[in-house]
Design a protein that fits this description.
By secondary structure, the chain is of the alpha/beta class. The strands form two sheets. Strands 5-4-3-6-7-8 form a six-stranded mixed beta sheet, with helices on both faces. The protein starts with a helix and ends with a helix.
Length: 194
Amino acid sequence: MASAKQELLELLSVKSFRLGDFKLSSGGSSDYYVDCRATTLDARGAQLTGRVFFDGIQSQGWKAEALGGLTMGADPIVVAVAVISGRMNGFLVRKADKLHGTGQRIEGFRVKGASVVIVDDVCTTGTSTIQAIEAAHEFGFEVAGVMCLVERLEAKGRAAVEKAAAGANFISIFTSDDVRQEHLRQQTQLTSKN
């Protein structure tokens, strides 16, 4: 029986990974695209995402009370981990300050001084992850660590996230190479069966 991490990788490679010509939100172009929401919003994918992230948080020894990230990529990860853990709370970071109601940029868990983990689905340039880290610091959270589901292996992206994290570890569950290799492995298996 495959581990939760291996099963999640297999699901990502089928549901979230595409080869082709794509324009990225960073403005760059790529021969592949990873849409993690196709996996993190899948029923089984959500279970696996919650389990793998929670296991990762525990293995890092982060004693966090909550986790959160920039809406919308982080949203399903936050909910999945909160449900699987049964004890970690979640918060969501708006892309901009809310201009009505209470005007909060951070929704959900809001305890100043609390230890938190910042999560994201895909990290390329690190912009959305950095925005979440900065919002967490501005609110008064202590960032224990940073995790992303798929890191696209942009050297500047990792360096920028690590700088913003100010000493907190940044780990990725998978790299884009991991997902690409699994995708190609599965394609080869399908071809050999036909």
